[in-house]
Amino acid sequence: MSMEWAAKYRGLMEAAPDAMVVVNAAGEIVLLNLQAEKQFGYRRDELIGQRVKNIIPSGFAERLIADGTRSAAEALSQHIGTGIELSALRKDGTEFPIEIMLSPLESAEGILVTAAIRDITVRKEAEKHLAEMEGKYRGLLEAAPDAMVVVNAAGEIVLLNLQAEKQFGYRRAELVGQKVTNIIPEGFAERLIFDGTRSAAEALAQQIGTGIELSARRKDGSAFPIEIMLSPLESAEGILVTAAIRDISVRKAAERHLAQMEGRYRGLLEAAPDAMVVVNEGGEIVLLNLQAEKQFSYRRDELIGQQVTNIIPKGFAERLIADGTRTAAEALAQQIGTGIELSAKRKDGSDFPIEIMLSPLQSPEGILVTAAIRDITLRKTAEKHLAQMEGRYRGLLEAAPDAMALVNQGGTIVLVNAQTEKQFGYRRDELVGQPVTNIIPEGFAEQLIADVLRSVGDASSQHTHTAIELNGRHKDGTQFPTELMLSSLKSAEGALVTVAIRDITTRKQAEALLLQKVEELNRSNEELGQFAYIASHDLQEPLRMVASYTQLLARRYKGRLDADADEFIAFAVDGANRMQRLIQDLLEYSRVGTQGRELVETSSEAAFEQATANLQGAIDESHARVTHDPLPRVLADEGQLTQLFQNLVGNAIKYHGSEAPQVHISSARDGTAKWLFSVQDNGLGIDAKYFDKIFGMFQRLHKREEFDGTGIGLAICKKIVERHGGRLSVESQLGHGSTFRFGLAESVRQS
Amino acid sequence: MTAIGMGVPMEVLLVEDSPGDVRLTQETLRDANRSIHLHVASDGVEAMAFLRHEGVHVRAPRPDLILLDLNLPKMDGREVLAHIKADDSLRLIPVIILTTSESEADIVKSYQLQANCYLSKPVQLEAFESLVKSINDFWLTKVKLPQDNQTR
């Protein structure tokens, strides 16, 4: 080596950025530069003459030896420009990766090899990191649900994943290196070219996160809609673009369907009778209908995008937030069909009550809530009115003197008043919800159910005001008689029956008492009748003895005893005779009640004719004139009617004045079903003060010397008239005759 | 054939508990017809004993006519009537109910038991005398009754 060359070479070597070591064919270091000293941590004199193995333990010396067996030209051609990666050893023993570039050099001392040694620690680490990164990236790529295609600036596919193979129907090898326009004919490659004119930073900023909708083509030529997300990637090969490609055929179809649906939905929305407001999760109004505009007095554009709290201050937005934390399914399940009552506010600030029905709707914008809003001002007013009514009704119910209960179709008590508590000894809560049979053990529940099975209208018409007598049962088990008034009532809960329950214990007792009294009275009357009959009958026997023997005595001994005896006997005979009359009259009087016949259709004229026939002797004797109007047919006991006429006409003839007796019998209608009979005479007349007395038994207004008779006649008349349901009255003035009047029932078949 | 004109005395049984009535009937009947033999039984039991010739009545005659009161001690007139009409040997004897009762029930009952007639005793003496006379005139004079031997 010439000194000049050596100096020149040394200058070059020292200026090189790499460590430079020159090694002879024996593997000994003959020259090195400053960089080499630094890199290996040796001073120059410590390495010169040393074996190169000291710093590059393997791969280099062997190569020299191997190279030594070849021609220099071969070795040169083989090694120049070749970066050999080896491991180097520092003076301190640490290893580090190096890349060696060898260049043989022929010299007087044989072939020398100049090795440019570059410490590649940093690059190795970067490579290692990159390999790891690539592994991960590839994994991600393959695992991605979308087709992923990486394209270079020339529009060539450099990488793709499994999804891309599937999606486009190509094998990977068929696509790598091909133009991306093969699979995405338009819109993608152009974009890349366009992007290529911009800086990578600009391109990055612009494309990331943007979904571009394009049309893709499969290997079989069929087209399908895709959405591409591009993300540029700077690489050693220039800008690469990773395209995430999603097949959106299904979504497109769904969107088309949705668009149709929306059209329809909007129509429905506008047609809805309620105000409809659609609100998003942020509580903002996204849609509303005409009704909503009207109801809240806003124009549509004044509400869209506004907070729903502007129109529904409370209860709605909170609910949305609450719903937002739940799944849509939960929210749906929970809210649909639920009427929520809230207060709404109009544009003018006035409040009004509303009922909201919410139905969540899943949309690409998240859960939307459609609220159907109904103005319930009228209903609220009605409810208030109803509450007042109910208050009043309850007041009435509680004030009712009867126990009142509401019973449903199942026979369960739904409402009772205070009186029910008192009457049955239960507290209200012990009755409500219980079967009505607890308090009315028999007959009621069955009847109730039977009634309700009929139409409500029918049942109400049949059972309102119908009093049913049933036994009630007190909590202590005692039973008492009640009277029930039922009326059915239509209610929201179905047909109810209102039962007014009256404790009729007192009435029942009174009825029983009355019945007992009537029985007693009947028995006593019967006994009295029997007594009167038997007494009069049995009295006849001894009386006959007295009468007969005093008469026999009078007949056989008159004039044979003294004058006193004759007079005494006469008194005895007279007394016996009067007593006999009294007894016979008493008997006759008692027979009116005990021996009367049924009241049947009777000709009063025939009865009258019979009476006058019986009186013919008296009529002839007194030259009486007895006249009558045509007399009607009546309901009567003919025998008693005859006796009635006979007694009245007989009296009229008997108690006559100085003129010959005139008696007139007439009849006139009295109301619809009665005839009023009058027996008018021109006789003595009766002082008004005796009007009551004359109808009593054995009451007489005259001395026996003046008029014969016991005074039973009018008493019998009164009893006969009363038995026929009428009343016998008299109108008279002393000296101006008398008129006796009585009413009789008209016969059914009146001619 | 029994007739007043033939001088054969008529046998009449009066069933009557009242001595006053018995005497009154005896008096008025004697006034009407002196040939009548009036036998008296003061209660129903004695009447049946007389008719059936029992005890002291073993020799009692069979009466041509019975005058029967209804209200009697021991056995009343209705029972006596029923026994007589149920007895083949007695049922042809005419029985006249002679009583103070004017009760319709008594009248109906008596005829149902085959009484031959029903008469009620008038209170007035003259009326009673007239009634007894008419019994004699009709039942003991005009009426033809069966022969004794035909009914025994």
Structure in a nutshell:
With 751 residues, chain A is of the alpha+beta class.
Task: Describe the structure using short key phrases.
heterodimer; A: 751 residues; alpha+beta; five-stranded antiparallel beta sheet; 26% strand; B: 152 residues; alpha/beta; 5 strands
The residue-averaged pLDDT of chain B reads: 87
Strand order of the largest sheet of chain A: 2-1-5-4-3
Number of strands of chain B: 5
Give the low-pLDDT segments of chain B: 1-5
Largest sheet of chain B: 5 strands, parallel
Overall SS class of chain B: alpha/beta
State the separation between the terminal residues of chain B, measured CA to CA.
Answer: 15 Å
Radius of gyration of chain A: 69 Å
Poorly predicted regions of chain A: 459-463
Q: How much of the polypeptide of chain B forms β-strand, as a percent range?
A: 15-25%
Report Rg of chain B.
14 Å
Helix-strand string of chain B:
EHEHEHEHEHH
Largest Cβ-defined interface? A-B, 16 and 16 residues
Could you estimate the helical fraction of the residues of chain B in percent? 40-55%
The neighbouring-strand order within the major sheet of chain B is 2-1-3-4-5
Number of alpha- plus pi-helical segments of chain B:
6
